[in-house]
Amino acid sequence: MMPAKFKMSKKGVGQLLKSRMIQADMLARAERIEDVAVGIAPVYAGAWDTNRGHYKASFKVTTTNRGGRRKDRATATVTNTAYYARWVEYGTEKVPAHHIMLRAAAAGGGG
């Protein structure tokens, strides 16, 4: 029997990486990460907090087929638009880090 042969096309791989199929998969992964992040996001219970739940409600998913270092592939991104999101993620000298995005990506980003 003759072994199977394969010749890779760089142009074809490039088209695949920008395709709607890959973009849809990236979006599905990002939405799973967003779901986990919302589920584990803290809600401060202090009486003075007038924006209770704002951080939890501020997650957003975006997708594009012009992502990557060379703007040549499909990507999806999960962000939190609360101005204090970085402090929730990384902490401060008085508040411990929660690592919401890190934990969500680890839990929800797999296949």
Helix content: 25-40%
* Major sheet characteristics: 2 strands, antiparallel
**In terms of per-residue confidence, which ranges show pLDDT below 50 for 5 or more consecutive residues?**
none
Order of helices and strands: HHEEHH
What oligomeric assembly is this protein in?
single chain
Question: What is the average per-residue confidence, as pLDDT, rounded to a whole number?
Answer: 88
Helix/strand class: alpha+beta
Strand order of the largest sheet: 1-2
Helix count, DSSP H or I runs of 4 or more residues: 4
Number of domains: 1
- Please tally the β strands and state the result: 2
Span of the ends, CA to CA: 35 Å
Work out the radius of gyration. 19 Å
Describe the global form: elongated
- The proportion of strand residues reads 15-25%
Features:
two-stranded antiparallel sheet; 111 residues; alpha+beta; 4 helices
Fold blueprint:
Elements: H1 10-17, H2 20-40, E1 59-67, E2 73-80, H3 85-90, H4 100-108
Helix pairs in contact: 2-4
Q: What is the structure about, briefly put?
A:
The chain is of the alpha+beta class and 111 residues long. The protein is built from four helices and two strands.
Characterization of this structure:
- With 111 residues, the chain is an alpha+beta fold.
- It has one domain (11-108).
- The protein is built from four helices and two strands, in the order ααββαα.
- The chain has helices at residues 10-17, 20-40, 85-90, 100-108, and strands at 59-67, 73-80.
- Strand 1 (59-67) and strand 2 (73-80) form a beta hairpin.
- Helix 2 (20-40) crosses helix 4.
